[in-house]
Amino acid sequence: xxxxxxxxxxxxxxxxxxxxxxxxxxxxxxxxxxxxxxxxxxxxxxxxxxxxxxxxxxxxxxxxxxxxxxxxxxxxxxxxxxxxxxxxxxxxxxxxxxxxxxxxxxxxxxxxxxxxxxxxxxxxxxxxxxxxxxxxxxxxxxxxxxxxxxxxxxxxxxxxxxxxxxxxxxxxxxxxxxxxxxxx
Length: 184
What we know:
Blueprint (H helix, E strand, L loop, with lengths): L2 H20 L11 E13 L8 E10 L4 E10 L2 E3 L2 E17 L5 E22 L2 E26 L2 E9 L4 E11 L1
Antiparallel strand pairs: 1-2, 1-9, 2-3, 3-5, 4-5, 5-6, 6-7, 7-8, 8-9
């Protein structure tokens, strides 16, 4: 594993351990911090010529320090999509600060997030003339950059929410997902 991947995984694991340790902490405003884990599904929008957009699957976890501010870490991978007769896939690791705005008298909230993400895109296909294979071509791109997203969520009850998000992961990838999270 490369250093950034290890760092992001360590941050995520550390955040989740901190979440567990602080789960019962009550802040000065009477709010008790809340940890959550979730899963999401959607689609990468890749800016790669000749590539279809792969289906995305992800997991995430975070901690809300108060009703508005929190942290979140996520991993999103994909299945193989068509790339010039071959395959292409993508994956992303991210760590974010989050902000939620709760609409009054509803379970509806808006969410924004800003942080750092590493996105990797890999693909390959075989060039051929007629029935003769010439060579296998590959595409590979890895980008670590500032990333962010916006979303809309609905708290079904105090321990369960659903969300729809759009994330900008760098110059070559966007991500649109729907997901669900369990709060504890």
